């Protein structure tokens, strides 16, 4: 088990932002396969609930129980952090409320500009100790967003679809108040 102390010194993430983890999603299988016009795959009887109160993360592997856990094809992209304010802004642009779960992201934050985490080290802590991450590439939206969220969502989400990340330490995240620590200041999110 890798702790955050093994991968980060105490002073390398000096900037603190108080945020909220509003939703956590763990999906054992893909739901958006095939053509969007055919619709998402249904939840199967016996499938565990995708929304969680807590998730367990493992360094270099991702979220325990998620479809991308340990997947070589998703190295550096096993966890997607998404800003709820960005989705609310998309909803305002499109004139409809949007269901965040339909985006299929994992960690839904409120209170910070998540797009600023791309290419940066950061940590999130919810009381069980911080989990260290490395932000990598943008979580680009796909054509499914037009079908599952609202017409026009695919285009409207460009540049604000979240950050694909990799956990660099083991840990647990839970819903509620959280601390985001970064190497550089992160702007507060606005809808």
- What is the helix fraction of residues, given as a range? 10-25%
Tell me, rounded to a whole number, the average pLDDT.
Answer: 87
Instruction: Indicate the proportion of strand residues.
Output: 25-35%
Structural class: alpha+beta
Describe the structure.
The chain is 13% helix and 29% strand. It has 191 residues and is of the alpha+beta class. The strands form two sheets. Strands 1-5-4-8-7-6-10 form a seven-stranded mixed beta barrel. Strands 3-2-9 form a three-stranded antiparallel beta sheet, with no helix packed on it. The radius of gyration is 16 Å and the shape is globular. Residues 1-9 have low confidence and may be disordered.
What secondary-structure arrangement, pairings included, does this model have?
Blueprint: H1 4-7, E1 15-24, E2 54-58, E3 62-63, E4 79-83, H2 84-94, E5 107-110, E6 121-125, E7 130-138, H3 144-148, H4 153-156, E8 163-167, E9 171-174, E10 176-182
Parallel strand pairs: 4-5
Antiparallel strand pairs: 1-5, 1-10, 2-3, 2-9, 4-8, 6-7, 6-10, 7-8
What structural keywords apply?
10 strands; alpha+beta; single chain; globular; 191 residues; seven-stranded mixed beta barrel; disordered N terminus; 4 helices
